[in-house]
Structure formats: C-alpha cells, structure tokens
Amino acid sequence: MKRAIYPGTFDPFTNGHLDIVHRAAALFDEVIVTVARNSSKKPLFTTDERIDMIKESISSLNTVHVDSFEGLLVKYAKEKKAQVIIRGLRMISDFEFEFQMALMNRKLAEDITTVFLMPDERYTYLSSSIVREIAQLGGGCGPFVPQGIEKRLKEKYSS
Ligand code: COA
Q1: Is the pTM of this model over 0.90?
Q2: Could you say which of 5, 19, 28, 52 is the most buried, measured as most Cβ atoms within 10 Å of its Cβ?
C-alpha cells in the first residue's frame, strides 16, 4: 500500500493543485491532501473552509482524502503511515525552497521520500496569492480554480 500526502496552504485550492492531485492519484494507492493549520501565511479561508473546498473539488477521486495538520510535516506523515510527500514544482524559482525543505525533511525522517510532480504547463503561472489578488480586484477567477471556489472567493471579498 503506497500512501502519499500532499501538504500545502491551499488558500485557495487551484486548478494547478488539482492537476497535481490527479497525477498523484494515478501513481499512489492513496493520497491525502492535507491543509497546513499553522501556516505563517495568515490565510483568507479558515482551515474548515479550505478542507470543504478541496473535498468538493476531488469528490470524483475515491482514493484521495482530505485532512489538516499542525506541527512537523514528517511527524504527521509517520502518523498517517505515508511513505511519500508530494510537492508541485511549477518553475525553477520553486526549486530552491523545495529542495531545502525536501532535504530537511529527509534529515528528519530518512524513510519518507519527497516526490516532485510538475503540473500541466497551463498552470505554471498560477498561485493562490495571484488568484486571491484577482478576486479581490473584481476579476474573474473561473479559469483558475475548481468549480465553486470562484463563488466562495467573491463572497469572501464582498463580506
Ligand atoms: N498550482 C498552483 N499553485 C501552486 C502549485 C500548483 N500546482 N504548487 C504550489 N503552488 C503555490 C501555492 O498556491 C502557493 O502560492 P502562494 O504562496 O501564492 O500562496 C505556493 O505555491 C506555495 O504554497 P504551498 O504549496 O501551499 O506550500 P506552502 O509553502 O504554503 O506550504 C508546507 C508549505 C505547509 C508544506 C510547509 O511549510 C510545511 O511542511 N510546514 C510544516 C512545518 C514543518 O514541517 N516544517 C519543516 C519543513 S522542512
């Protein structure tokens, strides 16, 4: 049983994240998309809102589950008996930070391997903060996020 976790802030979950989840689901028996609760990023959406949005987006994938975590990622991976951490690499600028994180996680837990997946090139320019900025300025986010998330973004910024 190969179980992978896909951690992130997902504020909000985008089509680029969804693309990575589809690729991971094709490679591993089970994938847990896990929302970081202690992110220093001061998220726009609460943890529960982010979990709900991801659940709605992945409802057709029955080997993918959604959860949240706090504290050390490798500790959580061990608790979940996951052998693999998935991270998305969009472009070379992601590499330095991801490389450092992967090596540190390997120092902390030798038996957990980070696997990098590249999203479709259509999504290499996407990030959660750019999506939030577009929504905040009244632009349409439909092409960038799974169904339902554009509406939630509009509601957030109108309230
Ligand atoms: N499509 C679209 N956007 C993507 C993407 C994709 N495929 N892959 C990454 N991104 C974007 C995200 O939207 C996010 O954009 P933003 O900065 O504009 O919000 C950015 O890339 C990176 O975010 P994310 O992938 O969510 O990672 P993160 O940096 O927010 O989260 C954790 C990193 C939570 C996994 C990491 O901090 C962690 O493990 N924390 C736990 C504590 C710990 O163990 N620390 C020791 C680590 S060595």
Answers
A1: yes
A2: 5
